[in-house]
Amino acid sequence: MSARPTPWPRADKELLPHTVEKLASQFPDLTYAEYPRNPTSFEDGYRTVTYREFNNAVNGFAWWIEKTIGRPKLDGGEETMVYMGPNDLRYPIFVLGSVKVGYKTLFPTPRYGAEALATLIGRVDGTIMLAPSSPLPIIQEVAQKRPMKVYTVPSLETLLDTPSSPYPYTKTFSASKDDPLIVLHTSGTTGSPKPIIWTHDWAQSINEGFHLPSPPGYQSMEGLLLGSKTRLLTLMPHFHASGFMGSLFMPLYTGTTTTLPPASILPSTAIAAAALPHIPGPVDIIASPPPYIEELGANPALLTQISSKIKSAMWVGGDISVTTGSTISAKMQLFDDLGSTEMGLWPILRPEGAWNAKGVQEFWHYFRPHPALGLEFEAVSSASSVGASSKPDEELYEGVIIRNRDSEWQQPIFKVFTQAKEFRTGDLFTEHPSEKGLWKHYGRADDLLVFATGEKFHPGGVERRVGRVEGVKEVLMVGTRRIGGALIVKVEEGKGRVVKERIWKVVEEEVNSTVPVYARIERELLVVLEGGRPFEKTPKGSVKRRVVEETYLEEVGKAYGQVEKRRNGEV
């Protein structure tokens, strides 16, 4: 097998199907990705997929579409297919194969209910449902709510191993750059999910963003973590934007080798540790959602096992606790991979030098945006509204991305919102108190509580602190249009009374002493729930706040009623 080229061949102004064809021609035996042969265990080892095999699978799927479904009436992505299946390499194969034939494909999360999925599919006029041989139950439920033709797709091994002739694809980037490449969707935190279409031009902007030059004294995250000598173990699902970053854009644009966990079991850092002896080579970085990073930080044996084999970890899709981050960063490089479905990964910077050098490891929770990102910060609240674990001089700012001049790199967000001059991210940040230009992601603007007095408070710090109490499974702070804050806490079955006392001790001693008066939690407003269904989550694992609050509206209403009666002298 030939050596991996350094630097990796650029794919400027190139449609991704052509990029795959080029790499398969120039480097047919280079590894594109690796996955466990057995979808539920490691007992059969890992399979290596070369660029030749990946290209063959893309062509095979394109031919399968033409022969089984037929070509669309128009070939610019006007017609939409939908796929939900195991978290395997068929996702990137289906992206490129459907594009070659002239379709676009929506990849929704199967975690939504049938009604929400049917609505989402209707927004892109999806009429064709692709399903694996063992389809998820939700597929049939969606088909009952929205008439669709359902087709069973070939297995991954069939696509990789069955020789296929090249499928003709003669489009040019200049003529087709605005055609759809992938359809994903918003998280649906504050309502039903909405489709987000990535075009070929959007992908090209991601490519250019990966290769932005760094200012003197700094190194880009992409330059530090990605490249043809890097192996990435990703625990991200493909219906999440970061899943495609790991299996499509990072390999094709930077040469990074992508390694996946078993496709049909829920990933975790414990699964990642179990994978390490079976992966064909050393892993350089692990990418994970915040809950799995929290799991890693809470398990010293697991952290020792993974940090002895993997140099770096990055989390995607939310925040992690200070305790977790400090624990992990003492053992391995730790990075917050900021981004969004609309924008992709943000280009951010780290100081040059070793991880344990001054000003590097100690600032693991902070980032410095690349100047080309065009990120500006607008104050949205006073320092007192930040909440538990904040410092007195912290203020909250919303990140706003300003469109660059036409002669400069055009950020991906403006390939989605093509007429916009700026984009309000909805993300909240605090600046480091002494190191100017270093910022920490704090939470979402959507999560801000606005009390009946008009005063605002962000619940993130309180939720993270209460969430660390032993026996607490989930926590949500509410209070918008109310007289003050309340906590909805789900605890382990049969331990409600004991855990409630632990929570109240933390609330009294650590929460109420650090939050403003109007956000303090009164004892009646600690609503503790045992058992039952977990809080409903978005695809990235965050709580669907509005849905959960509505679910427990009666319990919360009674709690507020008790406070009002006490204040009115009725009890």
Summarize the structure.
By secondary structure, the chain is α/β, with parallel strands linked by helices. The protein is built from 19 helices and 27 strands. β3 (80-83), α3 and β4 form a beta-alpha-beta unit.
Describe this structure in words.
Pfam families: AMP-binding, AMP-binding_C_3. Residues 33-353 form the AMP-dependent synthetase/ligase domain. InterPro entries: Adenylate-forming_Reductase (IPR051414), AMP-binding_CS (IPR020845), AMP-dep_synth/lig_dom (IPR000873), ANL_N_sf (IPR042099). 32% of the residues lie in helices and 22% in strands. The model has no long low-confidence stretch (mean pLDDT 92). The chain has three domains: 16-211 and 222-345, ANL, N-terminal domain (Rossmann fold, 3-Layer(aba) Sandwich), CATH 3.40.50; 366-446, Luciferase, domain 3 (Roll); 448-567, ANL, C-terminal domain (GMP Synthetase, Chain A, domain 3, 2-Layer Sandwich), CATH 3.30.300. The strands form eight sheets. It has a seven-stranded mixed sheet with strand order 2-1-11-10-12-13-14, sandwiched between helices. It has 571 residues and is an alpha/beta fold.
Largest sheet: number of strands, sense, barrel closure: 7 strands, mixed
Global outline:
globular
Helix content: 25-40%
Gap between N and C termini: 80 Å
Estimated share of beta-strand residues: 15-25%
Mean pLDDT: 92
Pfam families: AMP-binding, AMP-binding_C_3
Protein name: AMP-dependent synthetase/ligase domain-containing protein
Keywords: Phosphopantetheine, Phosphoprotein
